[in-house]
């Protein structure tokens, strides 16, 4: 996968020492599309545009002889029991303390919000949060959203109606626009919600704010489709499943359409790739709780191509 | 480094599915000693004992042609300005919220305490927090302790008297005893403090508790000595530096001496190693904010030797 990486305008990602001066970095964007035939990377606007993909989903099961799977394990919301964390204006310390570590629903339960402090080991050589950190936090917020919505969740996050049909959600595209990367100790507030995306997909969006200033520092959107876990084939969203998720939909867009790079990009091959990073194989520590390599690791591998 | 790994009793580390049943895993221990001539790994008691080391500290600067450095970047406490986070019994939500994400001093400022929630991506294939996660949280707590003590901190954490002499702290040994690994969503409370270790070293200890039950689930201790940043030679602690750190010392031991494996272990070589994992090279993403590979990554590489 990583050998498909190609881009020319990536130095802005690796500027060092911006934390103390609170400089703003250039916008960086990362996309992945695991089932798209348009597998390539091309610099666009000011920043970095990345796409990694596997044309044939059946190939995702094996990398270097290890059983892995490049899909993002997210879970669809579910209309089951509610488990909202209620925060009152004044609460005893210990309760507030524990409650503030988890997320909570806001805006009539249509938005899930979680606050994080950036840890030292989540920053890279330039002393700011890495793209992997940003995407891990997006994933964490999405998973907590789903879990708090009442989905106990097998790893693949199927709703009840999906489980009956052996269906799982897979991500086909993630688009992240970073305005500013956080530093060690910064507190960020992440909002996430879901909406319909055409007839047979779901969209999950995120907004990351600086907790203190409430400035929006990152916007992200992703597209999810349904796959049969056994046949590995994409399928339409069954009507029963649609009825399960519709109550959670919120008609709001994190990245305005005119700022959303959805244009087709040239196909990337070993021949036209400007940068190739070989020798990358999944480590045991790359495996997640579902014993597969998720999309965040792919982004990390792709970024490895740009670092020498 | 990782090729030195050797152990026979490691399967307990990779038991899956213990999170829902709240089973207790076997004790696992990890040690590192970067300057010790006793570079080896030997199973002891029920669990895993690991030692990784580089006999010659000068060699730590380069791995595969990249400038790296295997030392743990920790910082010594400093008697400068105080920046304690004060928590009252009842506080408005937003303040409590932000405050609860950072650590605070307890026990007359001798112990620094921070609470963490385990994130999904910090767990491994067995669905529990990985050893790297445990050690990252120990590191994070130690760094926040130092920073909250008033050390602005160059990356190497020298006190003022140390900076004047180009001295930095380096870790020579970390011993971690895990009683139980946490699951996604578990809240842990970490206490850390420092004490003298003989005449020319400092000891940093940690206790990890389950936040809800207050049960101790992990104990850890580490030994720190002083090195000249330019000559890479170890040195005695200058009296002026000792005077800076003594006010922070707390005479308390996380791992009782009779439970602390300090016995000498046979030297490990390529010949007597039972397990060797080759092909591990630092990735760009292995670099920390000091542009070097810290001890936690070494532990990760060592553990890679046991996973096939």
TrEMBL record, chains A, B:
Every Acyl-ACP thioesterase N-terminal hotdog domain range: 110-244
Lyase found in the keyword field: no
Any one Gene Ontology molecular-function term assigned to this protein's record: fatty acyl-[ACP] hydrolase activity
GO cellular component: chloroplast
Origin organism lineage: Eukaryota, Viridiplantae, Streptophyta, Embryophyta, Tracheophyta
Primary localization class, coarse: plastid
Record function comment: Plays an essential role in chain termination during de novo fatty acid synthesis.
PANTHER family recorded: ACYL-[ACYL-CARRIER-PROTEIN] HYDROLASE, OLEOYL-ACYL CARRIER PROTEIN THIOESTERASE 1, CHLOROPLASTIC
Organism whose genome encodes this protein: Theobroma cacao
Keywords annotated in UniProt: Chloroplast, Fatty acid biosynthesis, Fatty acid metabolism, Hydrolase, Lipid biosynthesis, Lipid metabolism, Plastid, Transit peptide
Record-given protein name: Acyl-[acyl-carrier-protein] hydrolase
Compartment(s) where it occurs, according to its Swiss-Prot or TrEMBL record: Plastid, Chloroplast
All copies of domain Acyl-ACP thioesterase-like C-terminal, residue ranges: 273-306
Listed EC numbers: 3.1.2.-
InterPro entries: Acyl-ACP_TE_C, Acyl-ACP_thioesterase_NHD, FATA/B, HotDog_dom_sf
Record-level GO BP terms: fatty acid biosynthetic process
Family: Belongs to the acyl-ACP thioesterase family.
């Amino acid at each position: 996968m990583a050998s498909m990486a190609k881009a020319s305008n990536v130095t802005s990602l690796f500027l060092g020492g911006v934390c103390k001066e609170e400089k703003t970095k250039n916008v960086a964007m990362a996309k992945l599309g695991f089932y798209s035939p348009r597998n390539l990377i091309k610099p666009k606007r000011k920043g970095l545009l990345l796409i990694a993909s596997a044309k044939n989903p059946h190939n995702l099961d094996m990398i270097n002889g290890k059983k892995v799977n490049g899909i993002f394990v997210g879970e669809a919301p579910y209309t089951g029991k509610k488990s909202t964390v209620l925060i009152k204006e004044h609460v005893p310390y210990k309760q507030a303390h524990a409650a503030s570590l988890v997320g909570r629903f806001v805006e009539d339960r249509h938005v899930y919000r979680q606050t994080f402090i950036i840890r030292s080991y989540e920053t890279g050589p330039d002393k700011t949060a890495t793209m992997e950190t940003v995407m891990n936090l997006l994933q964490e917020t999405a998973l907590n959203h789903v879990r708090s919505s009442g989905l106990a969740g097998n790893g693949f996050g199927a709703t009840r109606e999906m489980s009956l049909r052996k269906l799982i959600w897979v991500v086909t595209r993630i688009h992240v626009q970073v305005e500013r990367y956080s530093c060690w100790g910064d507190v960020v507030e992440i909002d996430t919600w879901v909406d319909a995306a055409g007839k047979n997909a779901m969209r999950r969006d995120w907004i990351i704010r600086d907790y203190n200033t409430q400035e929006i520092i990152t916007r992200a959107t992703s597209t999810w489709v349904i796959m049969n876990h056994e046949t590995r084939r994409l399928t339409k969203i069954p009507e029963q499943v649609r009825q399960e998720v519709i109550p959670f939909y919120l008609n709001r867009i994190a990245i305005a359409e005119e700022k959303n790079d959805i244009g087709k990009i040239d196909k990337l091959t070993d021949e036209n790739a400007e940068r190739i990073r070989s020798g990358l194989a999944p480590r045991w520590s790359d495996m997640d709780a579902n014993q597969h390599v998720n999309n965040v690791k792919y982004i990390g591998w792709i970024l490895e191509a740009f670092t020498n």
